[in-house]
Specification:
Order of helices and strands: HHHHHHHHHH
Helix content: over 70%
Distance between the termini: 37 Å
Shape: globular
Number of domains: 1
Oligomer: single chain
Number of helices: 10
């Protein structure tokens, strides 16, 4: 099932309204869909490198809007809607573990790692942020920075290096994104420790 869904998503890149499909996939990925928008974004940017920045903007915008929808699911309808979605994807157990430790600091970590490297899946984190009532402004800014950094970095690589960079993106970019997120997180907590701001985690 997952392979067929992946192949179907990939096939959307060749359709006349591929940009519309990119917006749709980026939106639903952030709340309910299993396949990341990168699957569609990469072949589109390779086929039209002159539009890579435009595609990155569309993907970022609709990913953030989809994140807000996921946030609303967690905030207003966790039991009725969000919980069944998480259970369907087998993510409910992981969600409950994260929820036990959720606070501004841990949610910031999860928003950063999910936005940059899909770890954990962004749909889990957007629902979590709403369920624990993280501030919406904080949430939106975090999503814009993390998701925007990913899509615009991909656009830069694809515009400059073309098909030659695709293998690197598929095999190595996630590792680099995780390392980059780790550096940012360590810097953030280092500054908090220096400032003596107290407890860093909620559990």
């Amino acid at each position: 099932m997952l392979k067929r869904l992946y192949e179907w998503t990939l096939s959307l890149a060749a359709r006349p309204r591929a940009e519309l499909w990119l917006a749709i996939v980026a939106f639903v990925e952030s709340s309910v869909f299993l396949i990341p928008a990168d699957v569609l974004f990469v072949p589109m940017a390779l086929a039209r490198p002159d539009r890579a920045w435009r595609f990155a903007f569309v993907a970022t915008l609709f990913s953030v809007l989809g994140g807000i929808a996921g946030y609303a699911l967690g905030y207003y309808a966790f039991e009725a809607l969000a919980k069944p979605v998480l259970a369907f994807y087998g993510k409910l157990g992981a969600f409950e573990q994260m929820r036990a430790c959720a606070g501004p600091d841990t949610t910031l970590i999860l928003l950063t790692t999910s936005g940059l490297a899909h770890l954990p899946p962004i749909k889990v984190v957007t629902i979590l942020a709403g369920a624990v009532h993280i501030g919406l402004t904080f949430f939106v800014i975090s999503c814009v920075l993390a998701r925007g950094a990913r899509f615009f970095a991909l656009a830069l690589l694809l515009r400059n290096y073309g098909p030659a960079i695709r293998h690197f993106i598929e095999r190595r970019l996630k590792v680099i994104a995780v390392l980059g997120a780790a550096v940012l997180i360590l810097l953030y907590f280092g500054l908090k420790l220096i400032a003596g701001s107290g407890q860093l985690f909620s559990c």
